Amino acid sequence: MPIFDVSQTLDESTPIFPGDPPFSIAPVFSRKNHDEFNLSLLSMTTHTGTHVDAPLHYLDGGRTIEALPPDILVGNGIVLDLRGVEIINRAILEKSQWNEEIRIFFKTNCSAELREKNLNKKHAYMSDSGAQFLLEHGVKLVGIDCMSVDRTDDQYAPVHKLLLSSGVIIVEGLDLHDVPAGTCRIYCLPLKIRGADGAPARVFIETD
After folding, report:
1. Is residue 19 part of a domain?
2. Total H helices, total E strands in the chain
3. Single pTM value for the model
4. Statement: residue 31 has pLDDT above 70
5. Is 65 helix (H, G, I), strand (E, B) or coil?
């Protein structure tokens, strides 16, 4: 069964959310400088590249990244091909080929833009009605290939707050370019950082 790595490679050109500091890596020790080993210092936010949002991201006192349940982060799910869709709302989800999986990833136009390092500011996003539909159907893990499930210019982030306050885990910045639509098995592995509001993640999808 094919396994797809749907994580972005982190480097200085990795797209970032507007206003966030960029990723950087710099040598601390280097064999080129006659040190005995190579050792580098990383600088990035907890929401750089492919990452998981913990409830603390928007909710005071919310659960932190190391406390998220592994049985939600790993398991059967589905990838929905929503390329060409701008707003993921209730009507779109009602028409989709979805079989009530509790883990759902949305493939939009953002995956192609990620490959080109040229994200459109008018990316696809989820509406309140779409988020409410997922809650009504027991979804526990929601992923998207854009940098946010909300509109980038919406500072109130209503979809984040609605999902996170209901215990739904959010994954953003996925690279779903090569992944076919359909059922799959998802392996979402965020860094285990105590007290963090989120963390970069390595995410794999295994298809049938």
Report:
1. no
2. 5, 12
3. 0.95
4. yes
5. helix
